[in-house]
Design goal:
CATH topology of the largest domain: Rossmann fold
CATH class of the largest domain: Alpha Beta
Mean pLDDT: 90
Distance between the termini: 56 Å
Oligomer: single chain
Order of helices and strands: EHEHEHEHEHEHEHEEEEHEHEHEH
Number of domains: 2
Number of helices: 11
Strand order of the largest sheet: 8-9-7-6-12-13-14
Radius of gyration: 20 Å
Helix content: 25-40%
Shape: elongated
Number of strands: 14
CATH superfamily of the largest domain: Methylesterase CheB, C-terminal domain
Strand content: 15-25%
Length: 348
């Protein structure tokens, strides 16, 4: 049975979360009200998963997450109810400190969305319980390693030009996007189009968080705007995103694909149709198979395609499916992706 520690300063909300998890057959072995208590509890009794609040007395969720990941690492899921961009940005700082996922706080019993939102929390906890986490050295700053000399890491196919980079991600994606985007400079010759599966309401805060460490402008995409090189555009909540060969963003309120809207596959198909061999497709960590077939089409059109490797993926679902379909030319770590993008797009 999975064991969970609930960290939440509100007694009512704490009891509510314990009820939801217990009702789903998950064993809650502790419920504490601040980050300092959480750090001590994890040190004494290592749970399989911690659900973490952000705003708490004594020690907030960001610092508690960092301390836990530096001393006794366990999978941490941030549970948030505040969708103000500035507040959500703090939630993503907890991910930067080592938390694996974010989920919205479930709606109360009697609310029409209670069952769905409670199910999201339970599913996220179950998924994260299977992730093997590693210790983070105190306030370690991630570095971008050189490309290893392996069959999947050294680009053998270099396009004549790169006109668009399309990226898809799900669970675990924000931290990888941060690594990639902060390694890109403003003189990069192509725009980045990004689909990140995320609970509704968290996207503006994620964009602000990414912008804090990036040297290129990042924004939520608008229908009809012309994309610019050295800029990143993130698909908005509830809309598929594509791109015309004129370089204009296309947003579509069409049917869900692979249970998602926006869909990575939709973006990849659009990039393949508009840019073909001048596109780069990158599929990052995430559950399911969204994006794999679209990446296969990109590869067939002559585009460079990259899947994140298993070792660095929180959930090796989407990239694994692409690899199984032989859709990925390269299988790389996040740091290697940055180095590869630089190598194939900025050549002497």
């Amino acid at each position: 049975m999975i064991t969970v520690l609930v960290v939440e300063d509100s007694p009512t909300t704490r009891e509510f979360l314990v009820h939801i998890l217990t009702d789903a057959g998950i064993r809650v072995i502790g419920a504490v009200s601040d980050g300092e208590e959480a750090v001590r509890f994890v040190q004494r009794t290592r749970p399989d998963v911690v659900t973490m609040d952000i705003h708490m007395p004594v020690m907030d969720g960001i610092e508690a997450t960092a301390r836990i990941m530096e001393t006794n690492p366990v999978p941490i899921v941030i549970v948030s109810s505040n969708w103000d961009p500035r507040e959500v940005e703090m939630t993503f700082r907890a991910m930067e400190a080592g938390a694996l996922a974010i989920v919205r706080r479930p709606q109360g019993i009697g609310h029409p969305d209670h069952a769905a939102t409670a199910g999201e929390l339970v599913l996220k906890v179950l998924l994260m319980s299977e992730v093997k986490v590693v210790r983070r050295w105190p306030r370690q700053q991630p570095t971008i390693p050189a490309i290893a000399n392996t069959p999947h890491s050294v680009p053998a196919i270099v396009p004549e030009s790169v006109k668009v980079v399309a990226i898809g991600a799900s669970t675990g994606g924000p931290a990888v996007l941060q690594t990639i985007l902060k390694g890109i400079t403003l003189d990069f010759p192509a725009p980045f189009l990004i689909v990140q599966h995320m609970a509704s309401g968290f996207l503006p805060g994620m964009v602000e968080w990414l912008q804090d460490t990036s040297r290129i402008p990042i924004k939520i995409a608008a229908h009809g705007e012309t994309v610019l090189p050295g800029h990143a555009y993130v698909a908005p909540d509830g809309f598929h995103m594509g791109v015309a060969n004129s370089g204009k963003i296309i947003l579509a309120n069409e049917a869900y694909e692979h249970g998602a809207r926006p869909s990575v596959s939709y973006l990849f198909r659009s990039a393949a149709a508009s840019y073909g061999r001048d596109a780069v497709g990158i599929l990052l960590t995430g559950m399911g198979k969204d994006g794999a077939e679209g990446m296969k089409l990109l590869k067939e059109r002559g585009a460079v395609t990259i899947a994140q490797n298993k070792e660095t993926s929180v959930i090796y679902g989407m990239p694994a499916t692409a690899v199984e379909l032989d859709a990925a030319l390269y299988i790389l770590s996040p740091g290697q992706i940055v180095a590869t993008l630089t190598r194939i797009a900025i050549r002497e």
